[in-house]
Amino acid sequence: MSQKDWIAISEGVMAARAGMFAVVLVDxxxxxxxxxxxxxxxxxxxxxxxxxxxxDSQIGGYTARAYANADxxxxxxxxxxxxxxxxxxxxxxPLV
Length: 96
Fold this sequence. Notes:
Largest sheet: 4 strands, antiparallel
Mean pLDDT: 93
Strand order of the largest sheet: 1-2-3-8
Shape: globular
Radius of gyration: 13 Å
Number of helices: 0
Oligomer: single chain
């Protein structure tokens, strides 16, 4: 993927298509409330999975759960009982 293939889809979130995957780079500074879902972005057409997917992720170095659905909604769930303030991760979203 060249630099021109990447598109910004929200503040701190970029995505590019690589074959049958959307590669989503997340580098976000925001409040991730404990044990709650936080919306990151809406994936554009052509980068959305065909069904709801859950992926492992991290917030502040701790395990989190990412979610993407066929409407393009991309969210992350903070599994900790404490708030987080930063997320830097790369998510691979299968497009099948």
